[in-house]
Design a protein that fits this description.
The structure holds 2 protein chains of 2 kinds. By secondary structure, chain A is mainly α. Chain A has 5 helices and 1 strand. The model of chain A is unreliable at 1-17 (pLDDT under 50). In chain B, strand 2 and strand 3 (42-46) form a beta hairpin. The chains are: A mainly alpha, B mainly beta.
Chain lengths: 101, 390
């Protein structure tokens, strides 16, 4: 209940102008955990990828090849310093390249 | 905090969300959500950091996009609590007098308002053929608002630019989780930063910015893509050399031609930062694949933007672009604003391909052929819609 009320109350308080009171909101937790695809486990993706972005970033993508997913994984690691365990790379790519069930 | 237990609990409690089909070649179905603070019904592209798209029918109603349905795009996590009394805008770098301004300080400067389109550089990326990686927007990563605040130029004058200033860099309160990831910062060339219409805004359509749209301050750069409209703005740094940071030098780059157009698979060639938007017209009262009853004239409405100039003309075609008829334009709210259009087409029973195209005041015509680049930026061609009559 509080979760729903807080943003609304805050909006009322700040309607006055640029120096109004504190605005505090809550946002949804995420898009949930990814489910396994056929027999390919989602564990490696759930544990390595979802700390920085929710599952929707993955499930919204068009069909990509394993090589394209590999480029994305490299970008996450080199540009965004994602602490992806190297030994999980194969399991991550197996999952991402598998067809959604 | 994301934990397995809370996620399972919320998944069990939530009813199945209504879905919307965005018309992509594949994987175009998305949930609708009303779970985000200060937001009504939005298309959920990603919960965190949030990517929320505006449903197309919202643009069909008014010249300005309601704050409650204005799209949302964050790269990194951001504070969920803002105390405007404690917020400070720091101005430093190549200036005579570094400053730390409160919102009250800013409010003492002359106020300015501008109606302007804010559009993600990747708006329409999900419609690219072939498909490309990234946020899979349809055409709802855009909106038009009346922005109110102070001129960036007036704020920079308080600090005083030193000779040799080249660029002005902007940063906000959002921050990456991982140490070593590049903070989200964008720059404008100093000449552009000093133009009249670049604002530091705290109001949008007469109200405070929603937190998800950058409360308490955001940069407004009319005519330029939203990547420059830094949200929760708290840092302005004047540079005496070009910004070599990741978000200017490595990201948001497009092929170095005005349409950002290359053949799929061709070498990328030289690239430049995405900057100015292109003229576009988007039909808002009919969706792709919709079936409509036969009528002498089928009403066709939408919104147009001129990019970096005003909208001069919008035309409609009911025959895949072979012939065009003009439409009536709505009120002119200025060079940077949406301009709504109201027209009609005589459509025969069966399948029809309808199109709208915009021409801006500089004479730039929206091309029939769709442009393409591997990042999905700067979508500029007309959007064909299939309509079934009967």
């Amino acid at each position: 209940m509080m979760r729903k009320l807080l943003p609304f109350v805050a909006i009322l308080l700040t309607a006055a102008g640029p120096q109004g009171p504190v605005l505090r909101v809550t946002v949804p937790d995420g898009d949930g955990w990814l489910a396994d695809r056929d027999r390919v486990s989602a564990d490696a993706v759930n544990s390595n990828c979802l700390a920085c972005h929710s599952a929707g970033m993955i499930t919204a993508q068009p069909r990509l090849t394993r090589m394209q997913w590999g480029e994305t994984l490299t970008k996450m690691r080199t540009v965004y310093a994602a602490p992806i365990a190297p030994e999980d790379d194969a399991a991550i790519l197996d999952y991402l390249a598998a067809s959604p069930s | 905090m994301l934990t397995r237990r809370t996620l399972i609990a919320s998944a069990l409690a939530a009813p199945a969300a209504a879905q919307i089909n965005l018309g992509f070649a594949d994987n175009g179905s998305r949930p609708l959500t009303s779970e985000f603070p200060q937001k009504g019904e939005m298309i959920l592209q990603r919960s965190s950091p949030p990517l929320l798209e505006t449903p197309m029918h919202v643009f069909d109603v008014s010249d300005f996009t309601p704050n409650s349905q204005f799209y949302v795009r964050w790269h990194y996590p951001f504070p969920l609590q803002i105390d405007p009394a404690r917020h400070r805008l720091h101005i430093g770098g190549h200036v005579n007098k570094p400053l730390s301004l409160s919102l009250a300080d800013l409010a003492r400067l002359p106020r300015h308002r501008v109606a302007a389109v804010n559009q993600c550089a990747g708006n329409g990326r999900g419609l690219f053929a072939p498909r490309v990686v990234g946020a899979q927007w349809a055409n709802g990563a855009m909106g038009n608002a009346l922005w109110e605040g102070v001129r960036l130029r007036d704020v920079l004058a308080l600090a005083g630019l030193r000779g040799g200033a080249v660029a002005v860099r902007f940063g906000g309160l959002d921050a990456p989780i991982n140490e070593g990831a590049p903070d989200y910062e964008k720059s404008l060339p100093v000449d552009h930063a000093l133009t009249d219409d670049v604002l530091i805004a705290w109001k949008m359509n007469g109200s405070s910015l929603p937190l998800l749209n950058g409360y308490p301050l955001r940069l407004v750069v009319p005519g330029w893509y939203s990547t420059y409209w830094v949200k929760m703005l708290d840092q302005i740094t004047v540079l005496d050399q070009a910004d070599s940071g990741f978000w200017m030098a490595k990201a948001y780059l497009q092929p170095a031609n005005p349409l950002a157009d290359i053949a799929p698979g061709a070498p990328a060639g030289p690239r430049v930062p995405v900057t100015v938007m292109r003229p576009r017209a988007i039909i808002t009262n009919i969706s792709h694949g919709q079936r409509l009853p036969p009528r002498t004239l089928t009403p066709v409405r939408g919104v147009a933007m001129g990019g970096d100039h005003g909208v001069k003309m919008v035309e409609l075609s009911g025959d895949s672009g072979k012939s065009w008829v003009p439409v009536q334009l709505g009120p002119d709210l200025g060079r940077w604003s949406f301009r709504r259009f109201f027209g009609a087409l005589a459509l025969a029973p069966g399948q029809n391909i309808i199109m709208a195209r915009a021409t801006n005041a500089a004479g730039t015509v929206q091309p029939l052929a769709q442009n393409w680049n591997p990042s999905g930026y700067n979508r500029a061609g007309v959007e064909p819609l299939a309509v079934e009559i009967g």
